[in-house]
Specification:
By secondary structure, the protein is of the alpha+beta class. The chain contains twelve helices and 15 strands. The protein has helices spanning 2-41, 108-136, 153-157, 181-190, 227-230, 250-254, 273-283, 340-366, 378-391, 393-411, 419-432, 438-468; strands at residues 46-61, 72-86, 138-141, 164-170, 176-177, 195-201, 208-214, 242-245, 261-265, 292-297, 303-308, 311-315, 318-322, 325-327, 333-336. A hairpin with a 2-residue loop joins strand 12 (311-315) and strand 13.
């Protein structure tokens, strides 16, 4: 068993590394190709196209280069960036006969187009990937709600265990169809601070009803990973079945086994796995925790009565109960698929929403309204790449699309040395008629480099902190 476990961990590690490298290669190559292709279209000579930084591990020149081009294509050994180096008089001497093809000699709109083409290529990649996923179809959890937390915003609205959300509408607005649980989560996050009308269908009766969800009571930091739970939402509905028992846990000592279906807890029939979790957590509020009598249905056996005494553990400022089990079978899935035109509309909408959300979160971090722990680095990206790859190619493509949007937005920030910083300088040139002074540019470059390095340091610290703590 130990050999199998070690082999499985090794396979997961290899998949994580490969998925990370593939993701980086695709995102960087697309970004730099945007710069390269626009430069070629503007008849600017491209000297080098590099994926990766540092010492080259591979070089190549086309035997049939584009007219006037002799670009060297390079792969660097540090896979954390890339660049397109063009003919430029500000960087090196340029022969007289090629000066008209130097980057610095181009018109303002051409230079702006070349710089903006990188982020635009990432946005285009995200659009194409999301369009493909929308047309192909993706299996997602149905928007069937688990039992909300008692007295929470969702509970006060009248949402119940097993309710399927069919549509969401901002009061006075057009209802938005909800196809899956991710659709519902996204719709709620986009309407924070509003009062929403939800059309839901009861699991038991099949009847439809309107529910009013008041998000004006919710805190506005949707970047918080626990934001949805703060509304009282516990995810998708799952049956109250034990799917895993931790070794040497309270549950194992009590005799709970994988596959046990929980019929009653202290005589109460749980509506779903979420309610069982709540009952376990509530037991930890007492000191010592009160023992619970579970009635479970085990395969091949009649109903069994088992005494379970949760452990009392501190979670933040609260005390909760724990027994060491994983509850809930996989939620019901639905295949979400759209026609080509609707898929394109949804892809554009999602790219826009992701861009706005990313900017919103970054702005909130700058003013101290959101935690800098939201900033992730290469370790977290590698972990997410590996997890998405394990879940299938559709999940990995969705991951690529989301990261591609984030990369585009990051590069468009008005920070010197980033594409957005160059565009800000071109805007200054367009308004004043002349570029910023060289002394100013040198100072701005240093400030921009310090800002980028600081962001990288915070992201790397967050990565390490997540692993250690």
């Amino acid at each position: 068993w130990a050999c199998v476990s070690a082999g499985a961990h090794e396979a997961i590690f290899i998949m994580t590394v490969l998925a990370f490298l593939v993701a980086l290669a695709v995102l960087i190559a697309v970004h730099e190709y945007g710069h390269y292709r626009m430069a070629v279209a503007c008849d600017v000579k491209v000297l080098q196209f590099s994926i990766g930084l540092g010492r080259p591990i591979w070089r190549w020149r086309s035997s049939r280069p584009r007219p006037g081009q002799d670009t060297e294509f390079v792969v660097g050994w540090i896979p954390l960036g890339g660049y397109v180096r063009m003919l430029d008089e500000t960087e090196s001497d340029v022969p007289a006969h090629e000066r008209e093809r130097a980057f610095n000699r181009q018109s303002l709109w051409r230079r702006s187009a070349i710089v903006a083409a990188g982020p635009m290529a990432n946005l285009l990649l995200a659009f194409v990937l999301l369009w493909v996923l929308n047309v192909w179809g993706v299996s997602m959890p149905q928007a069937i709600l688990a039992k909300p937390v008692a007295a929470s915003i969702a509970d006060q609205a009248g949402l119940r265990s097993g309710d399927m959300v069919l549509s969401v509408a901002n009061q006075g607005g057009t209802p938005q169809d909800i196809y899956s649980m991710p659709d519902l989560n996204w719709a709620l996050m986009q309407n924070v601070g509003a009062v929403l009308d939800l059309l839901v269908q009861s699991r038991d009766s099949g009847k439809q009803r309107q529910v009013q969800l008041d998000l004006t009571q919710a805190h506005t930091d949707t970047s918080d990973a626990q934001w949805l739970r703060s509304l009282g939402l516990q995810g998708a509905w799952t049956a109250p079945v034990v799917t895993e028992v931790v070794v040497a846990s309270v549950a194992q000592s009590a005799g709970i086994k994988r596959g046990d279906r929980i019929l009653r807890v202290d005589g109460k029939v749980p509506e779903d796995a979420s309610e069982v979790r709540q009952l376990i957590r509530q037991a930890g509020q007492n000191d010592p925790p009160k023992a619970q009598i579970w009635e479970v249905q085990r395969r091949g056996d009649s109903a069994l009565l088992i005494e379970v005494k949760p452990e009392r553990m501190q979670e933040g400022q609260a005390w909760v109960g724990r027994i060491g089990v994983r509850l809930g079978e996989p939620p019901a899935q639905t295949l979400v698929r759209h026609g080509p035109v609707q898929a394109a509309q949804l892809a554009v909408q999602r790219c826009w929403e992701l861009s706005v959300t990313t900017l919103h979160i970054f702005a909130r971090m700058l003013v101290g309204q959101a935690s800098w722990s939201n900033l992730s680095g290469p370790v977290t990206m590698a972990e997410q790449a590996g997890q998405s790859a394990q879940q299938g190619w559709t999940t990995f493509l969705a991951f690529l699309a989301f990261v591609s949007v984030g990369l585009a937005v990051l590069n468009l920030l008005p920070i010197p040395i980033l594409d957005g910083g160059h565009l800000m300088c071109y805007l200054w040139e367009a308004v004043t008629g002349s570029p910023p002074a060289k002394a100013w540019m040198a100072g701005l470059q240093k400030v921009g480099l310090a800002a980028v390095l600081s962001l990288m340091a915070v992201a790397l610290y967050n990565d390490v902190a997540r692993w250690l703590f």
